[in-house]
Amino acid sequence: MYLSNMNNLPEYLDFAATTPVDPRVKEVMLPYFDEVFGNASSQHIYGRQAKQAIDNARRQVADIIQAESPEIIFTSGSTEAINLAIKGYVEANSDKGNHIITVKTEHKAVLSTCEYLQDKGIEVTYLDVDKNGLISLDELESHIRLTTILIVVMLVNNEIGVIQNIKAIGKIAREKSVCFFTDATQAVGKIPVDVEHVDMLCFSGHKLGGPKGIGALYVRKGIKLTPLIHGGGQERGLRGGTYNTPLIVGFGKACELALEEFEANQERTLKQRRELIEYYESTKIGTINFNDVPHAPHILSITLNNLEADEFLIQHAKNFVASTGSACNASVIEVSHVIQTLFPNIVRNEILRISF
Fold first, then answer.
1. Catalytic position from the list 114, 179, 255, 328
2. Half-sphere exposure (CA, 13 Å, Cβ side) for 138?
3. Are residues 271 and 248 in the same domain?
4. Least C-beta-crowded within 10 Å: which of 7, 37, 74, 83?
């Protein structure tokens, strides 16, 4: 029903953390390790072969978010893209202001980057969320100042799956002439994504059947960024370094497949979601969170009834694996910042994340 089991391992229910590489993705990557191995920055035939493959992948990545190919910057993943978007924009536009607005339930990559910038003198406003994990548009608008230069709000929350109203946020940002960046890592391939209402957007290959170590930052034409990595002028001068052609090709193929098979994937994922909701409700093991607000189909948040989530996962470790929060916080055994924000009186973590 979930991930085929060849080694007698438990069922894998942690796809929000990472996904296996689709065999079709792996197949198209292989020639670029040893057959089409040229440096894409070289001008000879070997380089041009690699460059053509990268150009094709850039188009495939752009298509899944309805962007133009030149607006796609390849990175090592969403964390790097987040750093480039936020740090790069703040530095390149310091003459416009020094204030950022973000949300308390953002991914740690966003929060840690904002904390870093605060140490450098940048002012940051952290918006609260309501009981459903959604921000107030009125509160957002009320916090915009003359010195506000950037709004950062994720599209789909990686721990609870709720969807923020990106269209409305983008409209406010445009009216106030403020740049708007969204982390769409848990959205692309899971829900329709369109960059019409944002100025910058990021996502990673390994969340949709592509390889790890590759991602993208969409940057709308006219947006100025200062690069994090200086070098040979690759990626419009925004990310120096030799192109990782195999990973870029794999990322492009994963995006192409996700777009082509979107409806079938949605149907299968929603079926799995309904079955698990029915199971947990009928067995009284737990109650489903955030099911009455817009949410991505692949993430299910469950409050266990009088059961600590880590203990529950240990008890069922032979049957399935899931998560109690973001995989990026896996080394920290504590209630995640997202759960603490939504459940301020929580003493022990009874929140389970299952993802398909």
1. 328
2. 1
3. no
4. 7
